[in-house]
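REQUEST FORM: STRUCTURE PREDICTION
Request ID: SP-0412
Submitted by: Lab K.M.
Chain count: 1
Length (residues): 519
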Amino acid sequence: MFGDDDDEIRGARYTPSILVNALNQDPHRPLLHQLDGPTLSVGDVRDATSCYAQALESLGVGRGSRVGLLSVNRPEVLHVSHAAQIAASIYVPMHPMGSLADHLHVMKDAGVDILVFDAERYGDRAAELARELPNLKLAAFGPSNLATDLVELAARQTPKRLIAPKVRGGDVNRLGYSGGTTGKPKSMATTQRTTLVNFQIMLAEWEWPVPPRVLSCAPLSHAGGTMILPTLLKGGTMLVLPTFDALTVMQTIQAHRINCMMLVPTMIYAILDHPRFAEFDLSSLETVFYGASSISPVRLKEAIERIGPVFFQFYGQAEAPMSITVMRKAEHDVSDLVRLSGCGRPVPWLDVELLDDQNNAVPDGAPGEICVRGALVMDGYRDNPQLNTETFSGGWLHTGDVAVRDPGGFLRIVDRKKDMIVTGGFNVYPREIEDILTQHPAVSQAAVIGVPHEKWGEAVMACIVLRPGMTAVDDELIASVAKIKGSFQAPKSVTFIDAIPQTPVGKPDKKALRVMFGG
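STATUS: Completed
RESULT:
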């Protein structure tokens, strides 16, 4: 059949082929800048990709191998992710802010064969993981007494011509993790087909400067890494920062005339609220892509007025990455806070509908769950048939986000069907936090909700019912969560109540709690 993956002539060409093709052109053009390090040309990145692929191969990495990665931003993160594509292996990124328990769960569930880690930042975490997983291979960015120095090993290789592997649309190239209704991370297999369509939508629908001069401060192991291929294909450059720091970002934009970047709302707030904001010339910015969590419409209006009409919103989820809907720069109407609270309109590459609980389309102005069909949608949750049946009910991907649509086709998310909290662009799952809080001897019951927060989008709030005659201290409860799940998942506030309201069937009524404490 024409266009089938088995058709050598007409079969689709997936991202490994696109990457190889792009890296084999314009070898002297600058591509990757660093504040403290050399600028890498396209040819340098091509050769590094070859050398890292050879280094990983010498450590046993091949087609289908699970390659875990835990690192702050550095060019080597891109080299490893590119090398994984060349090897047709499966990339398993570890969240740089994740807890030991979360990292361990991902490592075990994904069956990671080798973990590549930043020796300076994550040496201790790698040692903890290695103690629990004695058969795990380790490779490090830099010297380590635990692992092979992958940087040094790659430097010993001789660059070879890049050759893209033969892959099919259904081949898995990445294992990502998201939380379920119980908060237990669940595995999502990203295929070559999904990755290709994601990039096609980014190239076709996102508003890129010509050429883009990109500043990367979001994690390269996650959404930040999706910026490199469009930058490469559009003849642009990327400057990589290890982490986000508002002052450094503003200094870099001014010094390097950055015209494009990706931010989450809390990063935007941090820039606006910095005491030295007025000192910097940010006029080179042409496009700021933002997403990952809801943004305060008042703060978005402020950002447009103070920085300029440069903001472009993307809405998606791991199950349908990056771009279910977009809101273009010109569609940000600062006179309309309802518009600014929306998530834009569906991209034409997908079918997007708002459905009720019976999978019927709802009229404009009525709330319905955002449901999606198209090649961007994941194949399903790995080894979870029951959840897949629920998620794909009626032949649609059910996102769990409830929205209303205006007559112009713009969507505005009004609630989530589940109780997941999104704080500062990160997902927090209340059940996990509640289980930790109820380990305290004075706590009888705990209910965790998200409440509106000007900076974080949502803040984690814990509602606690104490055992009779006992007391507990806010800071102690918060610290107990931070120790296990990390500070970003710990409650920002604790309130003590006499009883948790219940639904008619006896479940905790979190909607009532949000009304009581969230406004």
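NOTES: The first strand starts at residue 30 and ends at 34.
Reviewed by: T.R.
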